[in-house]
């Protein structure tokens, strides 16, 4: 007990001395000064629980990237004890990384170092070296983001990837885990062609109709499938049918990506009608929902891209469309339109 108190006192005094020294040499926010200062998640995130949730998910993703995990271990990541409170301070901030110090866990991992390059716009600029400063991107008004759900499909997805590459259009593919395990090489191809993969559940249920445990399992199984196929854990979730409530939306520590243009490709199953509908409903800043499991949709994509380009549109990724990183437990519909639950 005495030893503990002494140690505590020593640490406290050490921190105070370091902080005073840091203050005395400069009132500028050099990151090395912050490494010793008594920082909390609240301070470095401007008291944002969405940013803290994003840091929790980045911790899981980094742990999975740094260590070769089994499918079961990936599924259990959601239960890894991580900070929930803004007053928590189980981290060290250096010039290169935010290192999270974990409590004892089944992975046998003590520290996870998230490179600062992944934290731009998540940790406040004043705690970051200048080269990682978040600056709102000056993108044109006429931007759209394309999203493709329900794949991967063994023939249609590769065909679509070639079309997107031909027109130099990046897209996000929301994949179902039960298809990823059948066609893992297609998921790898999606990333290789410069696109992103999101989580669209295991077998496409209405998540709001499931218990929280089962809903978590739908996402965790799919994370494991995508990790096994690609070595990465998807950063976004799109609930099937866009069906989500606050209970489901707050389960995953991930941004929920919705849309504001539904191609209705699944209802038309007709290329000209799909093209016409997308062109009639797209506006600047739209997130467009399509499905890479319908041949009629894949056939519509070249016409949609050419027509939108002719109208002055640029095709961008989701963070570029939103002009900021997407944060956990917020839902995104299009530029300027994101909401909590
Ligand atoms: Ni779907």
Automatic annotation (TrEMBL):
Boundaries of every NodB homology domain copy: 142-316
Biological-process GO terms, alphabetical: carbohydrate metabolic process
GO molecular function annotation: hydrolase activity, acting on carbon-nitrogen (but not peptide) bonds; metal ion binding
Signal peptide coordinates: 1-35
UniProtKB keywords: Hydrolase, Metal-binding, Signal
Record has Hydrolase as a keyword: yes
Keyword Acyltransferase: no
InterPro entries, sorted: Glyco_hydro/deAcase_b/a-brl, NODB_dom, Polysacc_deacetylase_ArnD
Protein name: Polysaccharide deacetylase
Source organism of this protein record: Lentilactobacillus sunkii DSM 19904
């Amino acid at each position: 007990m005495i030893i503990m108190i002494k140690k505590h006192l020593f640490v406290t005094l050490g921190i105070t001395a370091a902080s005073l020294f840091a203050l005395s040499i400069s009132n500028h926010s050099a990151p090395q000064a912050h490494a010793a200062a008594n920082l909390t998640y609240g301070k470095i995130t401007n008291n944002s629980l969405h940013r803290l949730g994003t840091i929790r998910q980045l911790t899981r993703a980094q742990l999975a990237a740094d260590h070769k995990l089994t499918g079961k271990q990936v599924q259990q990541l959601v239960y890894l004890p991580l900070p929930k409170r803004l007053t928590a301070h189980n981290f060290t901030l250096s010039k290169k990384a935010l290192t999270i110090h974990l409590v004892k866990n089944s992975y046998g991992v003590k520290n996870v170092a998230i490179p600062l390059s992944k934290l731009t716009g998540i940790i406040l600029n004043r705690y970051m070296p200048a080269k990682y400063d978040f600056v709102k991107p000056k993108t044109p008004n006429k931007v759209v983001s394309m999203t493709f759900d329900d794949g991967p499909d063994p023939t249609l997805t590769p065909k679509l990837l070639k079309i997107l590459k031909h027109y130099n259009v990046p897209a996000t593919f929301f994949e179902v885990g039960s298809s990823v395990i059948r066609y893992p090489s297609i998921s790898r191809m999606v990333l290789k062609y410069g696109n992103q993969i999101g989580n669209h559940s295991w077998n496409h249920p209405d998540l709001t109709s499931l218990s929280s445990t089962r809903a978590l399992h739908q996402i965790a199984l799919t994370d494991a499938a995508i990790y096994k196929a690609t070595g990465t854990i998807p950063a976004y979730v799109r609930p099937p049918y866009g069906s989500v409530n606050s209970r489901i939306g707050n389960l995953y520590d991930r941004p929920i990506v919705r849309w504001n243009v539904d191609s209705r490709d699944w209802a038309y199953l007709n290329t000209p009608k799909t093209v016409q509908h997308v062109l009639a409903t797209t506006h600047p800043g739209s997130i467009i929902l399509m499905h890479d499991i319908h041949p009629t949709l894949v056939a519509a994509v070249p016409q949609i891209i050419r027509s939108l380009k002719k109208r002055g549109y640029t095709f961008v990724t989701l963070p570029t469309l939103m002009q900021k990183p997407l944060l956990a437990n917020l839902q995104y519909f299009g530029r300027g339109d994101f909401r909590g639950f």
